[in-house]
Amino acid sequence: MARIKICGITRVEDALAAAQAGADAIGLVFHAASPRAVSIKQAGAIVQALPPFVTVVGLFVDAPEADIRAVLERVPLDLLQFHGEEPDSFCQRFARPYLKAVRVRPGDDLNALAGNWPGASGILLDSYKPGVPGGTGETFDWSMIPSQRPWTLVLAGGLQADNVRQAIDMTAPWAVDVSGGVEAAKGIKDVDKINAFIHEVKRV
Ligand SMILES: O=C(O)c1ccccc1N[C@@H]1O[C@H](COP(=O)(O)O)[C@@H](O)[C@H]1O
Fold first, then answer.
1. What is the pTM (predicted TM-score) of this model?
2. 137, 34, 121: which is closest to 80 by C-alpha?
């Protein structure tokens, strides 16, 4: 069964709702330009409130190394998600497992692209939209994802309750990642949408 990450959490109550609904991971966005950005203080409060066994992922977009280290000193992140142009050598500097986001464009060879991050725990595929680093709420052509792949797929990009089952059936990801598809407004999650999404993922 695909694991589930609920990303773009900004409030303690949304983190608790995601955990209660059965999410395996939550994502905290440390990218000031995002409407879902959290401060170190907000992030600390969210992590402290979480029950055990929920993985906390910190998302960065071409952040300076010092900024990432400043977050890591204060917030116990389990996993890093790099959503910019960071090379593998940079992603490996933080003594944490990491996901590398790859924004998929028509014609991409995804096995070749994924090979650029040999140190990644997983490759998170997201939709490409010029000028927008992520969280677009848009899907991409899932048929581009090779069924034979020597890397771990985390599928993202425009997922929601009414398309996630088809996405899983087509691509057999290790995990799915959703942000906008379970929101009431940017940065504010909708508990009913979280529950519906997780229900669809866990449905056999
Ligand atoms: O959510 C954001 O604002 C964001 C900003 C910069 C980079 C990534 C961002 N979000 C991530 O994008 C994917 C897909 O999101 P969606 O489900 O299509 O809304 C996911 O990992 C988000 O956390």
1. 0.97
2. 121
Asked casually if ipTM beats, i.e. exceeds, 0.90, the reply is yes
Residue 7 is a catalytic residue: yes
Cα(105)–Cα(40) distance, integer angstroms:
33
Domains of the chain, earliest start first: 3-202 (3.20.20.70)
**Which residue's CA lies nearest to atom 2 of ligand 1?**
135
| Cα 91 to Cα 134: distance, rounded to the nearest angstrom | 18
Buried b / exposed e along 55-70 (16+ C-beta atoms within 10 A): bbbbbbbebeeeebee
Tens digits of per-residue pLDDT, 19-31? 999 999 999 999 9
Q: What is the spatial distance between Cα 9 and Cα 143, in angstroms, rounded to a whole number?
A: 29
Residue 66 CA, ligand 1 centroid: distance in Å: 23
Calculate how far, in angstroms, residue 22's C-alpha sits from the geometric centre of ligand 1. 20
